[in-house]
Amino acid sequence: MTISIVIGFIALAVLVYRLRHIHYTFVCELRSGKVTVVKGHVPSSFVHDCRQMMRGRKVVGLVKGINSDGKMKLRFSSSITQSDQIYLEKQFPHKLYDSKASDINGSVSLD
């Protein structure tokens, strides 16, 4: 009985740890009209679309990409408005991430 409780707590701890440490495929910082790739590879067309959206406006925040079940999901800082989030979701080339391609042509990276 005691062993099963210990194993249950260990399993719960591992689950909580995995949920808290989300592995982002990429992270972009939007600040002062500039897009900085903080982590990973981002399609250059998406970086261009971010710059277009920010033109003449003060947008500050992060855009994070999470590859979940072979599909890319975008997460946004709360400082990015809902309309800007919708615009960026529509502009993001999701098809590039549908396959398990190891290299994305035309990407911008930190390297």
3D structure, described in words:
The chain has helices spanning 2-20, 44-54, 82-91, 95-98; strands spanning 26-31, 34-39, 41-43, 61-68, 71-76, 107-109. The chain is an alpha+beta fold and 111 residues long. The strands form two sheets. Strands 2-1-4-5 form a four-stranded antiparallel β-sheet. A two-stranded antiparallel ribbon has the order 3-6. The longest helix has 19 residues, at 2-20. The chain is elongated and about 65 Å long.
List keywords for this structure.
alpha+beta, 4-stranded antiparallel sheet, two-stranded antiparallel sheet, 4 helices, elongated
List the helices and strands and how they pair.
Elements: H1 2-20, E1 26-31, E2 34-39, E3 41-43, H2 44-54, E4 61-68, E5 71-76, H3 82-91, H4 95-98, E6 107-109
Antiparallel strand pairs: 1-2, 1-4, 3-6, 4-5
Helix pairs in contact: 2-3
Estimated helix fraction: 25-40%
Low-pLDDT segments: none
Lateral strand order in the biggest sheet: 2-1-4-5
Radius of gyration: 18 Å
Element-by-element helix/strand order: HEEEHEEHHE
The coarse overall form would be: elongated
Strand content: 25-35%
Q: Report, as a whole number of angstroms, the end-to-end distance.
A: 52 Å
**In terms of structural class, how would the helical and strand content be classed?**
alpha+beta
Beta strand count: 6
State the helix count: 4
Arithmetic mean pLDDT: 81
Largest sheet: 4 strands, antiparallel
